[in-house]
Amino acid sequence: MPAETTATATTTREGVDAHSGVLIEARDLRKSYGAGGSEITVLSGVNASIEVGELVAVVGPSGAGKSTLLHLLAALDMPTSGAVYFEKKAIDSFEGSELADYRNRSIGFVWQRHHLLADFTAAENVAMPLLMRGAGYTEALETSARWLREVGLEARTKHRAGELSGGEQQRVAIARALVQEPALLLADEPTGDLDERNAIAVFELMQRLHRTHRLTSILATHNTVLAGRADRVLQLEHGLLLPVGDRTKPGSMH
Ligand SMILES: Nc1ncnc2c1ncn2[C@@H]1O[C@H](COP(=O)(O)OP(=O)(O)OP(=O)(O)O)[C@@H](O)[C@H]1O
Ligand SMILES: [Mg+2]
After folding, report:
1. Atom 27, ligand 1: which residue's CA is nearest?
2. pTM exceeding 0.90
3. Cα angle 32-184-218, degrees, rounded to a multiple of 5
């Protein structure tokens, strides 16, 4: 962990620059599905504290709860108990437009399967979050073209998403996730559907964007080689998040 990230976080959005304190924290997160005899507990007390600027990999076997955890961090699902704090504020206390802003503006989410709109062009897919919040078409498409350049797809802007290769589609999905300049990038098995060469290329692209855009990134992956390139690796196992190499300190990040 870089020394400059150890300062105490401030409580305001403006106060949290690229090198100050904790961006997102999970406190005793529990998540169960079902009820009565069929209830299963996926997360049984996850504690995690992710510093601004960190790239953290979450690994764990299939079914361990990686997607569940990312969905709770993104406020796409609610925990059974416990809480997620973003910039020191509990996300279940967000009011009015705060929750939508959190999901749409503070976070960029990349899924294993890109979830692009197949009949729209790459440029339109990337511009979609901007268009949805009312940006003008020309301006949104200009911003989108800039992002497609950043992910190396300037030659594909007018191709329909359905015509692109898997690796290209995932690059478009990454550009779409970042087009609103979120503070936090959450990626759920972003390379899971790709062959090894493309998986490495997409991972390295995310690493580069992480650095150049001063992101905080949390990446769930099965790929332990790629995970090993993260700043920190956390293992989800039996409902708990444990630092790899030190299983005595559940969720300890410091
Ligand atoms: N909506 C749901 N209702 C009931 N059970 C669910 C639901 N979502 C997930 N689960 C269960 O929770 C467990 C964890 O699922 P999750 O998708 O979080 O695992 P994962 O670590 O992401 O696995 P994978 O590596 O295969 O993507 C699984 O046993 C799954 O069946
Ligand atoms: Mg999953």
Report:
1. 62
2. no
3. 55
CATH number at residue 134: 3.40.50.300
Query: How far away, in angstroms, is 82 Cα from ligand 1 center?
Result: 19
If we measure between CA atoms, which residue out of 233, 156, 223, 215 comes closest to residue 192? 223
94-114 pLDDT, tens per residue?
Answer: 988 999 999 989 999 999 887
Structural domain span for residue 20: 3-243
Q: Is 254 a member of any domain?
A: no
Of the chain, the percentage scoring pLDDT greater than 90 comes to 80
Q: Which ligand is nearest to the CA of 69?
A: 1
Any ligand 1 atom below 6 A from CB of 20: no
253 lies in a domain? no
Angstrom distance (rounded) from CA 122 to CA 63: 32
State how far the alpha carbon of 47 is from the alpha carbons of 73, 84, 141, 209, 226, in Å. 12, 9, 40, 27, 23
User: Tell me: the pLDDT tens digits for 30-61?
Assistant: 999 988 888 999 999 999 999 999 999 999 99
Type of residue at 239: G
Q: What confidence tens digit (pLDDT) does each residue in 170-229 have?
A: 999 999 999 999 999 999 999 998 999 999 999 999 999 999 999 999 999 988 899 999
In ligand 1, the atom with minimum distance to the C-alpha of 68 is: 18
Q: Which residues on adjacent β-strands are paired with residue 90?
A: 85
Domain count for the chain, please give it. 1
